[in-house]
Amino acid sequence: MKPHDLPKVILRIALSLVFIYFGLQQVISPDSWTSFIPHFLTTSFLSANNLVMMNAFGELVLGLMLLFGIYTRFSSILLSIHLILISFSLGLSPIGVRDFGLAIATFVVFLNGPDSYCLDNKFTR
Amino acid sequence: MDKRLLYVGLIVAIVLVGIFLIRANQSGYNPQPTANTNSNSSGGSSTNNSSSGVPLSELSKHSTVDDCWVAYDGKVYDITSFLPNHRGGINRILPYCGTADEFQKAFTKQHGTSKVKLLMNVGVLIGDFDVMGAVQ
Lengths: 125, 136
What we know:
The structure holds two protein chains of two kinds.
Chain A: H1 6-28, H2 48-68, H3 72-90, H4 94-112, H5 119-124
Helix pairs in contact in A: 1-2, 1-4, 2-3, 3-4
Chain B: H1 3-26, H2 56-59, E1 63-64, E2 67-72, E3 75-78, H3 90-93, H4 101-111, H5 116-122, E4 124-128, H6 131-135
Antiparallel strand pairs in B: 1-2, 2-3, 3-4
């Protein structure tokens, strides 16, 4: 591994663990997250609980893709947009500002592209 | 074919199985009510309606923050003591105190069936809801 690649690897893995952690939390305890779901998204067929589970599924899949470095740019830009939307829906609150910071950090992973530990390199060489 | 797609498929499968196993492990939904009895009802004006059920006229009297009854799935529960502990705030439940259909629709829309067990645990079971009385 090239020395200048180390920060990229750390940033990618750390962020992916954040997404995986929150995804797991949503699966384990979806009720704790339903209050974050905007009312206009819920319908009689799609309860807030189901929306949390769908969100958890997306975060877990994309988080694992980011962890292993599979489609690194694709997964990181999707997660970044996802967090940007969440932070704007939460507004100027501690959680909203935190998510905005995480979104920018994830966008940096997108800008960096695959590092030397990503599986992307193995398949694109 | 891009081998990365295989890995993505593998990840999706693992996540799906994982979610299913976690949810199945946690699923404690029991259609049989396990709520408390009305021996410690905080409603203050609880009545013994076990024989004929609680009519809507009686249910609707309990619609305040200090006395909140709701009907769910044919049962009437006193959830007064739970109101301060509701994560979404008291004001999300208060409009539905003293109601049956309105509460059930709002409850199902927000929680699906995931909170049914909680409702039965935190709610004090008053008795059966007199559905015929509500229709009349």
